[in-house]
């Protein structure tokens, strides 16, 4: 369904006038309902939050974790624990902000001339997760680290691919027949093996009086819940939760940052860009110079004093709609939206793209226009229809972390560099490709120190 959507995803799907707020599809023998536009998506996810809080069964694994867990006690316990642990900025010796700032500095030092930003940005984003979950970062060329990032990306693409989304889901009996389709499990089992090894090392070196990272915090919870037969805290669930967080965090954040840097692409050109999707970075540079200067590192508190920079970051997320069709949900009970009855167990796709480009809400829905997030005095304003992280009970668990990364990476890099596309290279294209998320085509950048 998701891959089919990719061909529909361009402007017409967002057109409420043409498709309406509720679209019903039959895929094989499954009923799928697409919710289109702010009104329908908000009614479902916010006003009827619990009715839409379930996920479809995942054909590849009957595992727990958070992302694909069915709505219920286990999911609630893991989500609550993970959220509060991420909020607890004092994990180990460093705060969350410090970990992101430190990584942004490492990323600056790694720039060569010219380079493909994907590898470096993906490594930096992966390292923030490593620092939080394993307590340490890796050199970007570390083989084990790159293998892990590669396996997670592969597993992510397989999970969203035609084999697992459609073929194995519709014909689960195929799993009992030997054949090449069993290869879909390989990246998952390989990733779990790597994580199991890391958990084993943690158990061996752990000091119960000091929590270094997420894995230590989870191991503590397993111990506390030893006598509770209802508890979800187990070593398997630790592996699945960490795997889920890496899967959910790395591609989405990397791709969003790639889109951000793709926007400031005209910086070597004397005149502002003439297309309507890139920005003239002079104003971002000016704002950063005035508020932060060149000597100290950006701080998350600087956000309030950088309204234009912040508006560019938000507008990139709006315009690029990375998780364009949300993550599939299932109705938890019989319910209704906009007066239409929807039975329990129906697969729901919340077309976030149609909210981020809702023609009834945004002034210039199909243009890159940072002013969407600025008031008449140039101050930053939040918008109700800004839902790249979705909404309701299953909304993105990593929004706060992602916000910090998008802001701190962007400002740190623009504080130190101007970017341009090498003369002989094509400009990044916006349509890119769609596999569960919307990624830009690969592009090359030159970074010149300021
Ligand atoms: C779920 C977007 C970064 C962890 C989601 C969902 C979206 C999303 C749209 C689906 C929510 C729903 O079903 O309604 C994004 C974007 C990101 C980002 C655009 C970056 C720019 C992160 C990060 C983490 C993370 C950094 C890591 C901590 C999760 C998890 C879920 C999720 C665990 C599943 C939540 C649940 O089912 O309860 N994200 N995300 N995400 N995200 Fe993110």
TrEMBL record:
Single biological process term from Gene Ontology: arachidonate metabolic process
Pfam short name (any one): p450
InterPro entries assigned: Cyt_P450, Cyt_P450_CS, Cyt_P450_E_grp-I, Cyt_P450_E_grp-I_CYP2D-like, Cyt_P450_sf, Cytochrome_P450_fam2
SUPFAM superfamilies noted in UniProt: Cytochrome P450
Superkingdom of the organism of origin: Eukaryota
Record's keyword terms, sorted: Heme, Iron, Membrane, Metal-binding, Monooxygenase, Oxidoreductase
Sites where the protein binds heme: 396
GO cellular component: cytoplasm; membrane
MF-aspect GO terms: heme binding; iron ion binding; oxidoreductase activity, acting on paired donors, with incorporation or reduction of molecular oxygen, reduced flavin or flavoprotein as one donor, and incorporation of one atom of oxygen
Keyword Transmembrane carried by entry: no
Compartments, record wording: Membrane
Cofactor: heme
Family the UniProt entry places it in: Belongs to the cytochrome P450 family.
Record's protein name: Cytochrome P450 2D15
Lineage of the organism: Eukaryota, Metazoa, Chordata, Craniata, Vertebrata
Gene: LOC112105059
